[in-house]
Amino acid sequence: xxxxxxxxxxxxxxxxxxxxAEAAVEAMARRPGFRGSRIGRAxxxxxxxxxxxxWDGPGAYRRALSNFDVRVAAVPLLSTARxxxxxxxxxxxxxxAGAESAGGPGATAG
Length: 110
Fold this sequence. Notes:
By secondary structure, the chain is α+β, with helices and mostly antiparallel strands.
């Protein structure tokens, strides 16, 4: 499962946002089921940022969010995210070499 949260970060607040996002991801990375993350900024709109995390599944993500350290680090960040769906089931994936695989438990292809 992937979680994609998007943020509008005003000029002058980007360094603080990045520090907060890195702290939130660091706390989540210590939880079981965490697979990886990316923090990015839109190439065409430097005020638009995203934090993407990958998890073994929705249960791992929900359990991570209930952890005290994650709540302390991530909730302030998540509370500033755009109000839109953010959790997605992976139904297909392709690695850098072009190999395709199913998304995982419950994933359907085709």
